[in-house]
Amino acid sequence: MTSANGDNNSADHWFKEGLRLGRLDDNDSSIKAYQKAVELDQEHFMAWFNMGIRYGKTLTNVKAAECFRKAVALKPEDAMAQYSLALVSNLIGLTDDSVKHYKEAIRINPKFAKAHSNLSVVYYQFKQGREAIESLRSAEKLFDEQGETDKADMARDLMQELYSEFKFTAADFE
Questions:
Q1: Which residues lie closer than 8 Å to 127 by C-beta, 6 or more apart?
Q2: Contact (CB, 8 A) for 53 and 81
Q3: In Å, what is the CA distance from 82 to each residue of 11, 135, 171, 172?
Q4: Can you tell me the distance from the alpha carbon of 147 to that of 1, in angstroms, rounded to the nearest whole number?
Q5: CA 127 to chain centre
Q6: Predicted confidence (pLDDT) per residue in 156-168, tens digit
Q7: Are 42 and 11 in contact (CB under 8 A)?
Q8: DSSP code at position 173
Q9: Which partner from 34, 94, 104, 158 sits 20 to 30 angstroms from 115, CA to CA?
Q10: pLDDT digit string (tens) for 22-43?
């Protein structure tokens, strides 16, 4: 259990130290602080999650995936943890895991536009045109609803390219 007090031997102390060091862009020291936090409290979700982010910033994606897996195990209903695991899984070539965790992030939060968009990219990598377009259409609609017009415009432009490449029309998805 996470210690509620602020002593230097509590998981919360080391978690906060990790946050502070991360804000200074000292990723290596931040990671060490998060490691101390999880040594003291193996169930410190935010320490695992933030350590994954810091490993990602150092392009140590296998370690980032390990941290995000632990975070997902602790809080499987956390859409951002699922999304983060999906992202690094794709980067390290675990595309089946990537698809699984993007879909889970979307199940948890159906309005997670970036998850829809990134899932489209994974489908595109494997030339799954219909699935790529369906995901991108969802992302475009959500980006519009959420007022992210630049991203919605980019999704529309990409969709036109996908329609052409995979020999579909918008009518095929109505």
A1: 166
A2: no
A3: 23, 17, 32, 31
A4: 40
A5: 22
A6: 999 999 999 999 9
A7: no
A8: G
A9: 34
A10: 999 999 999 999 999 999 999 9
Identify the residue whose tokens are 């994606």: 61
Residue 18 tokens, joined:
């990790």
- Residue 132: which CATH number? 1.25.40.10
Residues 73-99: b if buried by 16+ CB within 10 A, e if exposed: ebbeebbbbbbbbbbbbbeeebeebbb
Biggest distance spanned by C-alpha atoms of the chain: 63
Task: With beta carbons less than 8 A apart as the criterion, state whether 33 and 56 touch.
Answer: no
Say if residues 149 and 158 touch (Cβ distance below 8 Å).
no
- How many domains in the chain? 1
Does 153 map to a domain? yes
Q: CA-CA distance, 169 to 92, in Å (whole number)?
A: 33
